[in-house]
Design goal:
mainly beta, 2 domains, four-stranded antiparallel sheet, 2 helices
Length: 185
């Protein structure tokens, strides 16, 4: 008959995932004629648990390369975008004792989906996407069965790994031409 023990350990006690599509407007210095490119750099974020949800706060720089003055000149418009994504936790361990550690991982870095000139022609509208996976790590109890005297690692028959090599056995393993062979190459 087995005995049982409760072990307190750190484990993932809650998870959540969120995909976000957002729209932003950039006001360039000149009226754009056409969009030549859009890219996102300098993504930074941090996550914290707020109640039964995780809040990911971050920012990135959005850069749009565009032509102006009837496609005769080009410029880059830059805008810093701040965001806050609230992610619901779908799995929550009811036996969790402490859930202070939050881990956030980017599944999709902020990325430009589309950049177009507004109808009035004075702004650039940029559609972006991003996706996060969050995990809350906390202390929880795990119940395990204990079987005294039945552990396979207690077998004394398999003591081969504890034997030491003799000096003559070690000498057999040494290649005396090792350094000479490497120098010749």
């Amino acid at each position: 008959m087995a005995e049982y023990r409760e072990i307190i350990t750190k484990a993932v006690v809650a998870k959540g995932k969120k995909y976000t599509n957002s729209n932003n407007a950039i006001s360039p210095q000149h009226h754009p004629s056409s969009i030549l490119g859009c890219w996102i750099i300098n993504h930074k974020y941090e996550a914290r648990k707020v109640g039964k949800k995780v809040e990911v706060s971050g920012s990135f720089d959005m850069n749009v390369w565009y032509s102006h003055h009837d496609n005769t000149k080009t410029s880059v418009a830059t805008e810093r975008v701040d965001y806050k994504d609230v992610i619901a936790l779908h799995y929550q361990d009811p036996d969790c004792l402490d859930d202070k550690i939050v881990s956030a991982r980017v599944l999709q870095q902020p990325n430009c989906l589309e950049a177009v000139i507004s109808k009035k022609g004075n702004k650039i509208l940029v559609s972006t996407e991003r996706e996060f996976l969050v995990e809350v790590i906390g202390e929880t109890k795990v119940c395990v069965a204990v079987h005294p005297g039945e552990c396979p690692c207690d077998d004394e028959e398999d003591d081969d790994w504890t034997e030491e090599l003799t000096d003559s056995e070690l000498a057999e393993e040494i290649n005396p031409d090792f350094l000479v062979a490497n120098e010749a190459e």
